[in-house]
Write a structure and sequence with these properties.
The strands form seven sheets. Strands 1, 4, 5, 6, 7, 10, 11, 12, 20 and 21 form a ten-stranded mixed β-sheet that branches. Strands 13-22-23 form a three-stranded antiparallel β-sheet, with helices on one face. The chain is built from six helices and 23 strands. The model has no long low-confidence stretch (mean pLDDT 87). Helix content is 18%, strand content 24%. By secondary structure, the protein is of the alpha+beta class.
Length: 493
């Protein structure tokens, strides 16, 4: 009797087995991919939280020491910009207009973005500069020294987005934030690449021979005020023309190059410089128009100059940095909140006269009849609304409430507060300033001018509170729109 040998697999069975194996492999691969993504996102979240806590400690210390009484000035510069968050968002934009988004309802159609809200394509890169009293240690030094052993109890601190170089370490106009292309600006084009910088300059009065010595009596290079400085010269704290000495190094450096963190002046001496500039009808402040130059990468053997440009780095991946302020700039009716006076007006001789206000931080009355702090800055919706108005308690220009003040006897009202140096957006008119719709009257365009500069001089009341909002993102896109943190600080008066 003939017997059959072992039965072989059929083609169908082999195909099914292979298919099952492939499905299993894909499933295992997917599990590992999801697990890897989850771990990566968790790490990115942990990094963002760690960076935010570190920044909070620094901000809190700086705000506690910020000088508001007898200060030369307190500068806040608010500015919005349209920029992609990362490369993936850039290449996925159909019309390549960063100020618009793709219309999900109509293929090929685009919708303009809002100028009053912040998102992954509309960013804020505000800056602020102020004088500081408290212990500061140097983070830079002469050539051949990374950190010098000098400290001071007075300083000048600037916060702002950094100017980074290209991959060769070269700073060009193409490498300023959001400028250029991925080829010309590989490190500073997208919001998730930006760096929040903090420059803390120690203020020390030079000796009679013009030198500043450290604790070891070694002469230091520093940012100086020329002996023949004119009445309009704001050095050594002028970002437009201040240069360093050549007592040790053969080279001079501009203030925004962050080579040194030492300036030859004191707060009281600089107050005199500012008062002289004001008496000569000169601009008394120097806006941080040239962003602080930092380089997070050391190319080649480290030098003192290389390490100095790393010291200002505070937060990496900071795609939003918003500065807003509150203070007592108006007199208001305690029941209705209506503005009854301002801190400055024009008298009959056309002179600017300063007067006290009601001693209360400016406020608005909410729908429940309660007082709420009125925040000032570049107009911004605080509740995700499509409009911004002063009547809703949104962030608005000080101008919007200022122009509601009544006439002051024989004097005339100022069109804006003296501290308001530049208003880039179309502001609210006098007739309906409380209900002015910023969204409808400031449409997004390629070159939308969204800037607001407030420089509080010696005669201006200073902010009582500062609110900082920052978003920390991951260049790899692991955090979606990033993680947003907000801090409120009360300044000493």
């Amino acid at each position: 009797m003939r017997t059959c040998g072992p039965r072989a697999f059929t083609l169908v069975e082999v195909t099914i087995s292979i298919a099952l194996a492939l499905v299993l492999m894909l499933g295992v691969s997917q599990v590992f991919r999801v697990a890897g993504d989850a771990i990566g996102t968790g790490q990115a979240l942990a990094d963002a939280l760690r960076d935010s806590r570190a920044a909070q400690v620094v901000l809190d210390r700086d705000m506690q020491g910020a000088v508001t009484y007898a200060a030369p000035y307190f500068l806040i510069n608010c500015q919005g910009i349209f920029s992609y968050e990362n490369h993936q968002q850039d290449i996925s934009d159909a019309d390549q207009h960063v100020w618009t988004v793709n219309d999900p309802a109509v293929a090929g159609n685009s919708i303009p973005l809002s100028t009053i809200s912040v998102n992954s394509q509309h960013h804020r890169f505000d800056s602020m500069s102020f004088f500081y009293r408290g212990l500061l240690y140097r983070q830079t030094g002469n050539d051949g020294t990374y950190v010098d052993n000098l400290a001071s109890r007075e300083g000048f601190i600037t916060y702002g987005m950094a100017w980074q170089p290209d991959n060769t370490g070269t700073f060009t106009t193409q490498t300023i934030i959001s400028n250029g292309t991925p080829g010309t600006n590989p490190n500073n084009l997208y919001g998730s690449q930006w760096i929040l910088a903090r420059q803390a300059l120690l203020l020390v009065k030079p000796a009679s021979n013009g030198a500043i010595y450290d604790s070891g009596t070694i002469s230091q290079d520093y940012y100086q005020r020329p002996s023949n400085a004119s009445s309009s010269d704001l050095s050594p704290l002028d970002f437009t023309n201040t240069k360093s000495t050549k007592l040790v190094s053969p080279n001079t450096y501009a203030l925004n190059e962050c080579r040194y963190d030492l300036a030859g002046t004191t707060i009281s001496d600089y107050l005199s410089i500012v008062r002289t500039a004001i008496a000569n009808n000169q601009t008394f402040y120097s806006a941080v128009s040239n962003q602080l130059k930092v380089n997070p990468v050391v190319l080649g053997p480290p030098t003192s100059a290389m390490m100095a440009q790393q010291s200002p780095i505070l937060v990496r991946g900071c795609s939003q940095f918003i500065v807003e302020f509150a203070g007592d700039f108006l007199s208001q009716d305690a029941t209705t909140g209506k503005v009854t006076g301002t801190y400055a007006y024009k008298d009959a001789s056309n002179n600017t006269v300063y007067q006290p206000t009601d001693g209360v931080t400016d406020y608005y009355i909410d729908t429940a009849g309660n007082r709420q702090i009125q925040w000032y800055g570049l107009p911004r919706s605080t509740a995700g609304k499509s409009t911004v108005t002063a009547a809703n308690g949104d962030v608005v220009f000080l101008h919007d409430l200022w122009v509601t003040a009544p006439a002051l006897g024989s004097g005339t009202a100022l069109p804006t507060a003296p501290c308001e140096r530049s208003i880039g957006m179309t502001p609210a008119p006098s007739g309906n300033s409380l209900t002015y719709d910023y969204e409808a009257n400031n449409k997004a365009t390629a070159n939308a001018n969204t800037r607001y500069t407030c420089a509080f001089g010696p005669s201006d009341p200073k902010p009582r509170m500062i609110r900082i909002t920052m978003t920390i993102d991951d260049p790899g896109g692991r955090l979606g729109d990033g993680q947003t943190y907000q801090y409120v600080f009360t300044l000493q008066q």
